[in-house]
Amino acid sequence: MMGDREKTLWFIIIMISVCCILISGMELYPITKNWESAVERSQNTQIGADKDLENIINFLENRLQYRLDYEFNLEKQPMRLANVIYLTDAAGYKLSNRKTSQLQVTHIIGGKINYAGIEYRGKKYTVVEGDSILNGVVKKIDSFVKINNETSNNKSHQAYHFKTKALTNYGDAIKSRNLLLFNDDINIYKLNIDVTMEYFYRNGHSDELYYIQNGEGNLSTNFGDLNYKKGDYIIIPRGVIYKLTPKNKTTSFLIESNGCIETPERYRNKFGQLLEHSPYCERDIRLPILNNPISQEGNFKVKVRVIEGIQTYTYAHNPFDLVGWDGCFYPWILNINDFEPITGSIHQPPPVHQTFQGDGFVVCSFVSRLFDYHPDAIPAPYPHSNIDSDELIYYSKGNFMSRKGIKTESITLHPMGLPHGPQPGKYEDSIGKKKTEELAVMVDTFKTLHPTSFMIKNEDKEYYKSWIK
Fold first, then answer.
1. With CB atoms 3.0 to 4.6 Å apart as the test, which of 155, 192, 257, 389 could cross-link to 444 if both were Cys?
2. Comparing C-alpha atoms, which of 295, 352, 356 is closest to residue 322?
3. What pLDDT is recorded for position 33?
């Protein structure tokens, strides 16, 4: 038998349940009435008689006719348009860490009418040729050219010497690129440039760093012009539209970085200014000189480098129509000879040569400098192992005290974990020397570099044995 307490509790529970049923019924009643009203209207609706439906049909027909006015060709995979900041994969996941307020391609839809779905600041749109974006009107979108990084079948973990001076194929600054090594963070190229680009170029995915080995010319950008010369580092942030015109044959070593290329953090204060002990300062940096805007209509091709290849667009207006710019995002130049070396009485570690930093790598400059000046110092560097990084050196000029058989434009690669140092006899040769006139660019990467099959064809097969000779 239930006591009074249990009876009271059950009574309360039953009353609460009844109230819930009554409230649900009251909420469902309007929905039921609206449904019955909608059914009644639909039974009396005739196509063309309902004004709202007629307006929708007219809108769709006009939109369809508008889309048919343009030729359009897109790949099935998500792709980057001229103003796209980052991509999504087929599942909709972002491929980079850019802000969610930026523009992204969400999908590609094909059929009689092909268009790209985009999302910008939380709103969704469709884009086809003829639509206006920040850099003008897209007149034509050409087919997508896929680029594959093919690693060599040689998987040996060993020291390498590559003779890049033997690469003699010439072309413009894009078509003459020979991919030598790569990893998830950077691609490294050798270029031989002898003709002007007949189009504009924008790297939409990576920052670029050119090191000019030989030659002079002009880099025209939408921020203005930069004249380059031998020994220049040219830093071109992603998104900058440019055209490179050589005055004479130009040889270049190029780094394409997935992350930003910037001045070393060790030499900057909290405001971004270079500190007094930095090996170069703002006065050494050359900025673009802005030209008068080019207000010109026609067909202007812009090749856009994206994650997996190059997409070509034809614009109705010249992209160099900029009337002015402001901010801290622009191309700039630093000459390697303006890098002031840091020396000491004993051998200085490699970080004193650091010139730039990027995501997953650093760039160092070995320049003309005094050797160690302690009475008992041996100028040649001590044997060492790179525990955390692969060490690549591009030899630009001079005699290299620690290496035998190295020529101008040679590249050596000493992978992480392997000890290396001066070759036999180089210690003795360095004693008593006061200075060096060498120039070299070193790239230390924190992920393994993979030589391409093209690179392996120009390998010095006996280099890894040079320490036993």
1. 389
2. 295
3. 58
Q: How far apart are the first and last CA of the chain?
A: 104
**Helix/strand/coil for 53:** helix
Q: Which residues pair with 247 in a beta bridge?
A: none
Neighbouring residues of 25: CB distance < 8 A, sequence distance ≥ 6: none
Closest CA to 451 of 149, 148, 167, 177: 149
**How many angstroms separate the CA atoms of 469 and 463, rounded?**
10
Q: Which of the 8 DSSP states describes residue 423?
A: P
Are 315 and 138 spatial neighbours (Cβ–Cβ below 8 Å)? Answer: yes
Q: What dihedral angle (degrees, nearest 10) is formed by the CA atoms of 151, 153, 157, 158?
A: -90
**Residue 115: predicted pLDDT:** 53
- pLDDT at res. 419: 82
For the stretch 246-293, pLDDT in tens is: 999 999 999 999 999 999 999 999 999 999 999 999 999 999 999 999
Provide Rg for the chain, Cα atoms: 32
Eight-state DSSP code of residue 216 = -
**182 beta partners:** 187, 450
- Assess whether pLDDT exceeds 60 at residue 451: yes
Evaluate whether 176 touches 191 at the Cβ level (below 8 Å). yes
* Contact indicator for 401, 368 with CB cutoff of 8 Å: no
